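Notebook, student rotation project (T.W.).
Task set for the rotation: take a protein with a known small-molecule partner, predict the structure of the complex, and write up what can be learned from the model alone. Partner molecule chosen: zinc ion. Sequence and SMILES entered below by T.W., checked by me.
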Amino acid sequence: MPPYLNMNCIHCKTPNPEQWFYCRSCGNKASEPIYTTNLFMQSEIGKRSDIEFSKVSMDSHINKINKDKIKKSNKFWKEKVRQSGVLNG
Ligand SMILES: [Zn+2]
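Predicted structure of the complex:
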């Protein structure tokens, strides 16, 4: 049996067949950290990191668009100045 399916409390070894998150006997977390971490990743952090990841990539996407815009605009005006310089000179 994999350790995370062994539902005895990791602190007092009281059997925990109902899979309480906290041991009914000693009050500590009843299961192995790997089990609670996986459970947590599947629920809260998993969802949250998805949201943050898409937010970050959206921000950097917008930044990239703005940078490209500035670059193009700089190039545009540089070209204008060069052209007017040619016409005037
Ligand atoms: Zn216990």
